[in-house]
Design goal:
Helix content: 40-55%
Structural class: alpha+beta
Largest sheet: 7 strands, antiparallel
Number of strands: 7
Number of domains: 2
Radius of gyration: 25 Å
Oligomer: single chain
Shape: elongated
Order of helices and strands: EHHHEHEEEEHEHHHHHHHH
CATH class of the largest domain: Alpha Beta
CATH architecture of the largest domain: Alpha-Beta Complex
Strand content: 5-15%
């Protein structure tokens, strides 16, 4: 048996063999077979299944992957293992999107069908005495009712679907797909995806954030979260014209958006368009349906803009920016 991430001497920890013959994979899968054979394999050392599993998904994306190099980033000697938060943070630092999957078997199968291996947490013990283990699911065989994993020191572990689901269930069905920026997972949930990308801010390179938010804004054009995130990413990259365009587009779609109004005014003020910026802020401050926190933010920005120098550059007329269909 492969070494586990965390070894606990527990009687009954291997209560995984008494399985029914009834198939677990849904009938819709039919005789379908999916195997991502090109996914690389990195055998784990000692308890270090976290670095090995992470190197596997990084390698699949063409990123340099060395489990030994990842040990210092994600392995916690005191716990003899890794935590999910460290794995996600390592992906963010490389400009990759760590998207946590919903705890749903159908989503797991759809993700595999789309060509994405899935990093999963398993509990190979029981809930009271867990044996935590990270592995990477690389396929399934509906006819045989099995899953295929890169696990421990086994490159191609074939595991009965019922057995896999039992271990996954005891780990609350935690799964993670690591995405290149600009790629959406199948059946992407808007808020789940945007939270994953927002958590990259201040960590991932701005170019990665631009690509990740851009695909979200294209998929969900009415999402203020996606549009504002894209504007902030452009600003962080030093592309203020593109950032201004994003906040202006958001304000046209949603004139009540205090965030869009505030950030657009800030950008206008920074390029010397003080009159247009103040008009936007004054209109926001005169609006009744904003709370005290939003009003305070607009006032702070107004005070900052009022002290900014005026430029003779190409500025929009104040009325054009200020006018909105309330």
């Amino acid at each position: 048996m492969s070494p586990l991430c965390r070894v606990l001497a527990v009687a009954g920890a291997l209560l995984l063999t008494a399985c029914s013959r009834a198939p677990v994979l849904p009938p819709a899968a039919g005789a379908e077979q999916v195997e991502l054979d090109a996914v690389p394999f990195f055998p784990q050392r000692d308890y270090q299944c976290g670095p090995a599993a992470l190197a596997t998904v990084f390698g699949h994306l063409g990123r340099a992957a060395d489990p030994d190099a990842l040990v210092d980033e994600v392995y916690l000697p005191g716990k003899k293992g890794s935590l999910q938060v460290e794995l996600k943070a390592a992906a963010r630092r490389r400009g990759l999107v760590p998207y946590p999957l919903p705890p749903d078997l159908e989503v797991l199968l759809a993700t595999l069908r789309s060509g994405h291996p899935v990093l999963v947490l398993q509990n190979l013990g029981i809930r009271r005495w867990p044996q935590w283990h990270f592995a990477v699911v690389v396929g399934f065989d509906a006819a045989a009712d099995t899953f295929l994993l890169r696990s421990g020191t086994t490159r191609r572990q074939v595991l009965a679907a019922r057995k896999f689901l039992a271990t996954w269930e005891r780990a609350d069905r935690w799964g993670l797909v690591v995405l290149s920026p600009g790629t959406l997972p199948p059946r992407a949930e808007r808020d789940r995806y945007l939270r994953a990308v927002t958590d990259m801010e201040g960590i991932a390179p701005p170019a990665a954030l631009i690509a990740a938010f851009d695909v979200a804004a294209e998929r969900w054009p009415d999402s203020p979260w996606a549009r504002a995130g894209l504007g902030n990413a452009y600003y962080a990259a030093g592309n203020r014209a593109a950032a201004e365009a994003q906040f202006a587009a958001l304000l046209r779609r949603q004139p009540e958006s205090v965030l869009a109004r505030n950030n657009l005014a800030q950008l206008l003020g920074e390029r010397g368009c003080r009159a247009a910026a103040l008009a936007l802020l004054n209109e926001g401050l005169a609006s009744h349906p904003i709370d005290d926190r939003e009003r305070a933010q607009l006032q702070v920005t107004r005070d900052e803009v009022a002290a900014m120098p005026v430029s003779a550059g190409n500025c929009p007329p104040p009325a054009a920016r200020a006018k909105s269909p309330h």
